[in-house]
């Protein structure tokens, strides 16, 4: 993992966490079972330029069929819990109990949000992240049905655009995110975009 990181011991608060986001840091844990967290500051930062967001044609066809009901902030804690569970493509996650508690508090403060895909009464996909000023910091996503998390990402971008957000931070890029237009930019360039976004009045999600 490229970038500086430092071990952090328990006195972190939601306000400290927001301050960390505002200067380009975010927390992770070694594993879900590790109670400690550390700060990460990548030298190359992943973002999705909101003006260059791309929806693959096959996914556009799926979205038109409306296979899921999309909800916002209906089940934030459940989304975090499912993001923390092992999946076929990941045997463990970095979301530990400390992180779940802190982001739950951010959610109740209006700074952490979820996008959810529902199939009837079943939560089958979702993502969550943090909003600060005109920036949204994507944290994690999960999927229990084909394309569920991808569809949530599309709805996230639609909402961010509609509400005037300027920055969608993905922390790192993956081949999956690159199909939507995600790019890596140097830390120095990222910090310029970040400062402009967090200096903006806090936008509604």
Report strand order across the widest sheet: 5-6-7-8-9-4-10
How many domains make up the 3D coordinates? 1
Helix content estimate? 25-40%
Could you name the CATH class? Alpha Beta
CATH architecture descriptor text: 3-Layer(aba) Sandwich
Judged by helices, strands and strand pairing, the structural class is: alpha+beta
* Spatial extent as radius of gyration: 16 Å
Assigned CATH superfamily:
Leucyl/phenylalanyl-tRNA-protein transferase, C-terminal domain
Which residues form runs of ≥5 with pLDDT under 50? 4-9
Mean pLDDT: 92
Listing every helix as H and every strand as E from the N terminus to the C terminus, the arrangement reads EHEEEHEHHEEEHEHEH
Supply the number of helical segments: 7
CATH topology name, in short, is: Aminopeptidase
> Whole-Å distance between the termini?
30 Å
Number of E strands:
10
| Most strands sheet | 7 strands, mixed
Shape estimate: globular
């Amino acid at each position: 993992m490229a970038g500086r990181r430092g071990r952090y011991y328990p006195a972190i608060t939601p306000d400290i966490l927001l301050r960390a986001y505002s200067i380009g840091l975010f927390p992770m844990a070694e594993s879900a079972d590790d109670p400690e967290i550390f700060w990460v500051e990548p030298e190359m930062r992943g973002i999705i330029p909101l003006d260059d967001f791309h929806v693959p044609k096959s996914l556009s066809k799926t979205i038109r069929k409306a296979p899921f009901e999309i909800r916002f902030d209906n089940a934030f804690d459940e989304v975090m819990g499912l993001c923390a569970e092992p999946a076929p493509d990941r045997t463990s996650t970095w979301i530990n109990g400390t992180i779940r508690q802190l982001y739950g508090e951010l959610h109740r403060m209006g700074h952490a949000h979820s996008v959810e895909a529902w199939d009837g009464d079943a939560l089958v996909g979702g993502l969550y992240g943090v909003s600060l000023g005109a920036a949204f910091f994507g944290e994690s996503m999960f999927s229990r049905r084909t394309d569920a998390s991808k569809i949530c990402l599309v709805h996230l971008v639609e909402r961010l655009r509609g509400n005037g957000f300027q920055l969608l931070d993905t922390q790192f890029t993956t081949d999956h995110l690159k199909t939507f237009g995600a790019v890596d930019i140097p830390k120095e360039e990222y910090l310029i975009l970040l400062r402009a976004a967090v200096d903006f009045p806090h936008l509604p999600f």
